[in-house]
Amino acid sequence: MDLNSESVKRILAKYKFRDVAIEELQKVHRIHPDMKPLVGTYTFTDSSQKDLLKLVGNIPVRYQGRSYNLPILLWLLDSFPFTPPICLLRPTPNMVIREGKHVDARGRIYLPALHNWDHPKSTVNGLLAEMIAKFEEDPPLSSKTTGDDKDPNELLAFVSNLQITEGVRSDRLINKVTVIGGGDLGMASVMSILAKGTVDKLVLIDLAESSTKGGTMDLEIFSLPKVEVSKDLATTAGSKVVVVTANAWTNEQSYVGVVQTNVDLYRGIIPRLALLSPNAVLLIASQPVDIMTHVAWRQSGLPPTRVIGAGCNLDSERLNYILNIALVAQSTGKQGWVIGELSDKKVAVWSSIGLGTDPHAEIIQNSNSTKPLTDRAFEMLKGKGQRSWSVGLSIADITHSILMDQRKTHSVSTLAQGWGGIGAEVFLSLPCILGATGSTRLASMALGPEEESKLRDSVASLTSFLAQLRM
Predict the structure, then answer these.
(1) Per-position DSSP letters for 288-338, written without gaps between them
(2) Coiled coil where (predicted)?
(3) What is the pTM (predicted TM-score) of this model?
(4) Contact (CB, 8 A) for 423 and 417
(5) Cα–Cα–Cα angle for 116, 46, 367, nearest 5°?
(6) How many angstroms separate the CA atoms of 378 and 363, rounded?
(7) Which one of 220, 319, 433, 448 is at 20 to 30 Å from 301 when CA atoms are compared?
(8) How far from 182 is each of 248, 287, 288, CA to CA, in Å?
């Protein structure tokens, strides 16, 4: 691997762990000599740009007895190898991307090795090995078919897979939503989503093994437009949003046992939901929501941007209503949020001006002037319970933002690792911009001592609890 060109040396000199990065690149060269280092300018989602090193080349993939070379690109951030590469496909003009469990429409690659990256245990060679294995199971590229050119030897021209893909894509053209669970919350979610008027088709799945079942008969009797009631998960294919409200039947006495029953229920449905709708956003409302959102993410194999929990969205909307109406809050241009674990450890915070759709907007500490106001509103909030219909309205609000690609900010349960110095792999409610491609977590900064303490307590308790579950 040529690391001696002036442009490569100039960029490498800016890397925080230059010597370790060079050592890692040399290891890549020994296993994958085809991967070449180049210099380029990467554009981040907020439109900022940075000159970075990238690895460009092909990986060998075997499918149905044939060998193919898949063109890929790995962008190396300046903290590489302690942060994972940004991995992309590089389709040639005669190839099309096949969206799936590990690849989105833009060709970005999502793999467990990237989500769980931990150098030095995690390496680029290990990442490429997993990439090859996953792509041999589910090829991410196919050939463009034309009337004249149907060479069977052309890269990944798999007719059967193309037919399946095309069948799913026809559903993606409409705003299709699935609700899993026919209990009070499932029914409330159905009615609230329909009331928003942005859904073209809504499938309600009533699971026999769920404790939240039995409310679907009336829907079948009165035959609401756009609603299909089913027990077959196959009817969920092509959904843009999948809302999971189901909880399992259980005779368990311990809290861990009750949650484990839910985890086992999820194991039977979540992987299939992700397979049938690989580009959907999973919206989890089962309890405990932070734990079950984490479970859904692990079991689905979807990127964390596509798995969120209803979390503290309802509390946040209520908090701002109280601040703006009941307390006639000062015109500060700021917005209040409820963040953290959906428990007595959740906290109220402020956001910076112009939060809207800016991923760099920050959460700020309560000042001496704002803290009494926030505390008073938060105490008023604690007196309001969460009924099924109110949570259903919150779910509809989140679903609407995704379907309409509104880029609106919600406090939803999301992977909190890396936010505010959180090192553990836990899900907490944090402000996230929601749109058609999922969630974008907002930037963080230091909180006040009280808020910081509650979040740390939540991280510790969630980590301990997760360790007791069999995923």
Answers:
(1) SHHHHHHHHHHHH---GGGEEE-TTHHHHHHHHHIIIIIS-----S-EEEE
(2) none
(3) 0.60
(4) yes
(5) 90
(6) 17
(7) 433
(8) 12, 15, 18
Q: Do 199 and 226 form a contact (C-beta atoms < 8 A)?
A: yes
Find where tokens 């460009």 sit. 56
Cα–Cα distance, 393 to 399 (Å, whole number): 10
- Could you give the 3-state DSSP secondary structure of residue 373? helix
For residue 453, what are its two tokens? 């303490």
CA 268 to chain centre: 20
Which positions of the chain have pLDDT values less than 70? 1-2, 45-46, 144-173, 208-217, 221, 250, 252, 325-334, 350-386, 444-446
DSSP H or E stretch at residue 271 = helix 255-276
- Nearest in space to 137 (alpha carbons), one of 176, 102, 185: 102
* Rounded CA separation 338/439 (Å): 17
Residue found by looking up tokens 């769920």 in the block: 210
Q: How far apart are CA 323 and CA 344, in angstroms?
A: 20
- Tell me the torsion sign for CA atoms 174, 304, 212, 338: negative
The structure tokens 């290990």 sit at: 126
Would you say how long the chain is, in residues?
471
Q: Which two tokens stand for residue 12?
A: 């490498």
- The radius of gyration computed from the CA coordinates of the chain, to the nearest angstrom, equals 24
Is the CB of residue 207 less than 8 Å from the CB of residue 213?
A: yes
Which helix (H) or strand (E) segment holds residue 125: the answer is helix 124-137
CB of 454 closer than 8 Å to CB of 445: no
**Distance in angstroms (rounded) separating the CA atoms of residues 436 and 108:** 15
Rama region for 89: left / alpha / beta (φ>0; ψ in -120 to 50; rest)? beta
Residue 168's SS3 state is helix
Asked if 401 and 302 count as a contact pair (C-beta separation under 8 A), the reply is no
CA–chain centroid gap for 161, Å, is 25
